[in-house]
Amino acid sequence: MDLDDILGRRGDDPLTALLAEDLDRLSVGELEARVTALEGEIARCRAKIAGAVSHRASADSLFKS
Q: InterPro entries this protein is in (predicted)?
């Protein structure tokens, strides 16, 4: 899977902008807050993935009967 497949190619995409942001201008506190926010977003994405996998497994078992 290519990074463009994940991030998209639009220049106005918020994730693309986030990844391109210059971190040199941020303080240690700002960087720590950013890491905390990103870790929260990772946890939210993982929970969504787990729910989708569980939902799919439930659907598959229902229709395999």
A: DUF1192 (IPR009579)
What is the pTM assigned to this prediction?
A: 0.67
| DSSP one-letter string for the chain | --HHHHH-S-TT-HHHHHHHS-GGGS-HHHHHHHHHHHHHHHHHHHHHHHHHHHHHHHHHHHHH-
Pairwise CA distance, residues 41 & 60, whole Å: 28
